[in-house]
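Objective 1b: paired records.
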Amino acid sequence: VQLVESGGGSVQAGGSLRLSCVASGGTFSSYGMAWFRVTPGKERNFVAAISWSGGSTYYADSVKGRFTISRDNGKNTVDLQMNNLKPEDTATYYCAADLNLNVLRTSSDPADFLSWGQGTQVIVSS
């Protein structure tokens, strides 16, 4: 499965962005999906994950209450709505897919996942 992210950009603190990831070449509705981010300091962190049905979602504490992950299995997309952005949210955001949602929740190594996108950059200025 191939993943392509979009929607990144530059925004002031307190603003919002919506990231989207479109999948092709696989059975999207079978995959757990997740968003990760890599900071300018090269730290890779889990952001959010969603089950194949969309019925279960999980968030990092740092984004809980500000970010919302959702998916549309008819369109093969997973989105990340980011509100009240902070400068510390500045990073390159990647989506990932795997048949095992727990792997997405417990690992941040792209080598552990079925697929990993190319990333979209988010810059939040103060």
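Objective 1b, second protein:
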Amino acid sequence: QVQLVESGGGLVQAGGSLRLSCAASGRTFSRYAVGWFRQAPGKEREFVAAISWAIVWSGSSTYYADSVKGRFTISRDNAKNAVYLQMNSLKPEDTAVYYCAGRGGKTAVDDAEYDYWGQGTQVTVSS
């Protein structure tokens, strides 16, 4: 069982930055893939980024939606049971509730593949 708690959301002007954190409980967190998803009002939840569990000799693999590639960076610190989403050059269209999610095994872009979810954190980007 894994419990996830997001933090770091807020109000920022376009072009600004925010760093979201996803704190996880559970001793086997390092073996979970973690994804970030977002949901804007009136829209379906969409994939943002994902990071695989760390392989000792090669580290973690990362994946991004085209809309955030080059602006967002996902990373993880297994010693702290945490995953981060650094968001730079924010745009008004990035406004949404952001969720982190975990699953055993490989990363996935389909939210239906994830077993554990946080409660979400609001990100609002003003123009």
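The longest strand covers residues 96-104. The radius of gyration is 14 Å.
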